[in-house]
TrEMBL record:
Keywords: ATP-binding, Ligase, Nucleotide-binding. Belongs to the folylpolyglutamate synthase family. PROSITE patterns: FOLYLPOLYGLU_SYNT_1, FOLYLPOLYGLU_SYNT_2. This is Folylpoly-gamma-glutamate synthetase. InterPro entries: Folylpolyglutamate_synth, Folylpolyglutamate_synth_CS, Mur-like_cat_sf. The keyword Transferase does not apply. Gene3D superfamilies: Mur-like, catalytic domain. SUPFAM superfamilies: MurD-like peptide ligases, catalytic domain (SSF53623). It comes from Xylocopa violacea (Violet carpenter bee). The keyword Nucleotide-binding applies. The lineage of its organism: Eukaryota, Metazoa, Ecdysozoa, Arthropoda, Hexapoda.
Amino acid sequence: MRNTVKRYICTVENYETAINTLCSLQSNSNYLQLATKTNSHANASYKLVNTRKYLFRSGITLEKLDTLSVIHVAGTKGKGSVCAYTESILREHGFKTGFFSSPHLVTVRERIRINGQPISESQFTEHFWKLYKKLDDTKDDEFDMPHYFKFLTILMFNIFLDENVDVAIVEVGIGGLYDSTNIVRKPACIGITSLRLEHTALLGDTLEDIAYQKSGIFKPETIAFSVPQLPQAMRVLEKRAVETKCKLHVIPSFDEYKWENLSCASELRNKIKQQNASLAIQMSTEWIRSRASKCSTVSPVTVSKDKIMVHIQLKVWNVVFPGLLMQVVEVKGTKFLFLIRRAFEIQLNYFYP
């Protein structure tokens, strides 16, 4: 699939021109339209081959990428929140975190965070031009540059390795099996959030198809955690776990946790948020456990349930990402609730007077 979008010609290597150059690498909306028209297993598989090629051209081998400790999360609903909870828990326990998410609302820098904060304009500018030059200088032809999301994925891996983060929490963009983030070969652990129909033109028009795509991030000898799923989705996850030799666990109910501070836990009543919190807890504690078992020289870290609960509570009651807005508007006696989540989800509910 060739990119026919005209490239932005850079004359000054500053932040503004970096953003303009990035945007010239084709928007995700254009990419989705093209991908839908040419969707096939062969074409989808080639996307990962391409991503690995660009990673290598950026100066990172797959062996080097293996040294990055990644928590990889896919799903239809809640994966951004789960990643945010997980990042907050691990940061509070003293670890340096990297967090990759999409989309963004105000600035693309929101997608790449270090210790919970978007990278600065100067950091973005420096890393962007360093990567862009490497890829531009080694391209085979004028079209041989990664698309927007693929470029950001390669940029993220470069930044997290350069920053020497302890853990990288990586949210899948679309699907999982052929997503650009799925060049990670040895994730520390994997999370699957609630699955529903989505992007059917790309991922398939049944829940089984969706589950198959999401389970594409399963890797051998890795532990995966899933929230409870509808039976048809869970059957696929279980089958794929066996095929890939990945250990799949369904997370416990939030009510099964024994909290040190019950007052904190009692305030988290929403079942969906409880489910997302449980998934984050399982992945965080597994990451800490596996890190301790692999690094005998590292001082053991005690997992604090109070720290976990307090930070999940903060993430639940405060804005996790810019763009979560609730606005009630009354029109002729009828109240309308507008929910705007992230940059692309707009939901309208109404209440009878």
